[in-house]
Each structure stands twice: as C-alpha cells, then as structure tokens.
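Justification of computing resources. Each target in the renewal requires a structure prediction run like the one illustrated here; the chain below, 461 residues long, is used simply to show the kind of job we budget for.
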Amino acid sequence: MDILLINPGKIRHDYITEHLGIASLKSFVNSRRFKAETLDMEIESLSVSEAIAFTLSCTPKTVGISLLDDSKNRGLRLISGLRNAGYKGYILVGGYFATFSALELLRDYPEIDFVVRGEGELTLTELLQRLIRQKGLSIAEIRGISYRDQIRIVQNPDRPLIADLDILPPVDRKYSKTVLNHGSALRVFGTRGCWGQCTFCDIVALYGQSSGKAWRSRSIVKLVDELEQLVKDFDTRYFVFNDDQFLLRGTKGRDRVIEFVAELKRRHLRIEFELMCRADTVQRDIMKELQSVGLKRIFIGLESFDPKQLERFKKRVSVRQNLKALITLYQLKIDVVASVILADAFTTFGDIVKQFMFLFTLKRRYFNSPKCEISINPKIEIYRGSAIYREYKQRGLLTTDHYLQGYEYKLKFWTGFRLRLFSWEAKLGRLLLRPGDLFKKYMTAIRWSVGQLKNYLVFQR
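Resulting structure tokens:
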C-alpha cells in the first residue's frame, strides 16, 4: 500500500456520512497507478489504539490524515501514537485545520513530515511520485506543501485551484453501503468552493488563497453519470449535494440548472435530493425546475435577520431577500433548514430580542413541515483563516487565540446572559415537549457506549 488515508473524525452514535475529501483523494491517486486505501474511524467506530493497530498491520509507505477543527485532537493523538508504536513511514496531514495551521503543526509535531495545503489531489499525487517512485528528487518545486528542511520550515507556493473538475474521477464509495444501512443518504459533489465573501467562512479563505476561480463546477453530463451509476450500484434514489454553494446567480446559474434538469429528464432518471444555497439564488422558476426533477429540501444560510449583522458578515444579502426566499420555498412546499447566527462580538441585547421575534414568527408561519427546521448557532464560530478572525485579532477582541485551543471572544454582558438563558430554555423545552424523543436518544447513546466498551475490552485481550 502506497498510502492509507484516514479520517479520524468525531465518532457519533446517531448519524454517519462519507468523508468525500479522502474518498476523492483515494480515487485520484489510484487513477495515477498508486495503491491507496481509506480508513474512516468515524464510520467504523474505531478508537485511536484500534486505528494504530490497523495501520501498522497494513504497512503503508505513507499515511495521510485529514485534520478538521472537530477532528484535530483525535488526529494528532493518532499521529503521536503511530510514531510511538514504531511507524517509520511518512506522515502527511491535510484539510482545513492543517492548511491554516501548517507552520504550527510542523513546529510542534516532529512526527509530521508534510502538510498538504488546499485542494489535495494534484499535490498529493505529485508528492507521492517524489517519495515513492523518484526518491531523491527535489520537492522544492511541488506547489501546495509545507515541510521541514532540516530545522527550517518551508512553505512552497500555493497550488492553483483545479480549473477542470472533470479530471477527477468519481469519489471512492467504500463506505456507501454502510452509510445507507444506517439510514443516511449518499452525498455527491457537483461544484467546489463558494463565490460569496462572508467574513466568518473558512471555505472562502481556503479557496481564496490560491489562484483560479474559487467556485467551479463539474460538467452536467459527468455529474448525472455518477448519479445514474449510484442508483444502479446501491439501489438508492435519495442524494444530498455536498456543495458549499450549489447554485450561481444570473444567466449562467439559470442555464446550468436548466441543463441539469434536462439531462435528468432525458435519461428518465428519477431521484430526490437536497442542496445548499444562498437566499439570493432562490428564484421561483429555478426552484420549480429543480423541484420537477426531485428537489425536496434546501439548506439555506440566512445567518441573520439583523441588517447591521448581515453587513458585518459581508453577506451581501438583505433581510428582505432572506424573507422572500423563505416565503418562496414555503409556497412551493420545499422543505427548508435555515441556518441562523444569533450573535457576534457587537450584538446587543436589543438585537437578540429582534432576532427571536423574527424566528418565532417565521417558524409559526413558514415552517409547518416536520422536515423544516431552524438551525441556530448561538454565537459565531471563529475559524483560523477567515476574515473575521483577522478582524477580531486586529481589534484585540480575541480572548483565546491558539490553533489547538481555538478562538474565543467576549460577548456583550446582556447578550451573553440572554444566550445562556436561551440554552436553558431549549433544553427544558425538549424535555417537556418531547420526552420520548429525548429518552430514545439517551438510550441509543447508552447502547452505543456499551458496545464501544465491549469492543475495547475484546481489543485489549
């Protein structure tokens, strides 16, 4: 095995999904005649010690580990554990967290040999070529990697974004059957990146640091080819588009939707699907077109009903546009998951009260399907690399600023008090209104934990 690609993600007992990042890397590396395999610790419910044992048994020449903010701690424990257990091969890391913390990771973790920054397919393949087939050749010209040159940390220039996504083969589907058996839907990507400029988003930062168009799309034919093959291979017709931004504004966006709809109808391919988009891409005629070929639910990042907050976020969407999008989807009977951020460092108590009034009215009038919901983020999360991180750092607003501990800031006193009260209200509401669901959730968690303990004891023997 040339490389074992690992997702150390947070283990859940209630929901699993494929890590399309390592799945895409595996497909692309294999298409270039390397031998790659994946290990998803989340889906396989593996502890760090179990993952170490599995990795050593495979004897891969290199190990690549995806590090995201919610998986970084397990990933770093895995890396240290592999070295302590005697693994001598190369260890590479990639993903959002690794990209924005490359210097610190190489400084603090001598176990790590390389950081693959940004999009990984071309960079990883070129690096494997040097490490495995052309040993001894310089890696100084490989764009998109960070590494040590003796005691000096080197950051090679960023690699341009992949202009033509059609050079990427369909992602590996090793775990698709498991995902379906757990009642989850298969995820598919049709685009990469986002054309927005939201200050809180690290997606914008990740793709914006490299040259090239931040938002790119696969050809409609290639996309529908994959959907058709998945229907045949796994006997499923429900999909979730993993795209950060499925739709474009304007004529180009409209033309792409019409082509997508026409291709599905031409092949008589009957599917149902969900997608993510912005409020300013919700147009009635476009939604009706997509609905005609199976659109069932939309995740929409509204973020706020406070115009001042929307301006601070550089959302470039008005409160009126947010409302219009929700009303349009309600009238078309398309289910909605609306994401809202209640507070940032500048939010006042009055702003919070107005937000609650909006949300109460919206939920009562336009969220009348059991599949509709409001996804509430009490306060904005700060990610390294985002514009809001740089702003808060420059203004001296960060109370915690560490790549491992995270990034925290202080809320206004009464804003913070109201958010804590909201948290208590939400917990009490779930207990009083849905005690059965809560009991079922806790029993599922207990059964899962007992199963994990049994597996651990068997492994220890």
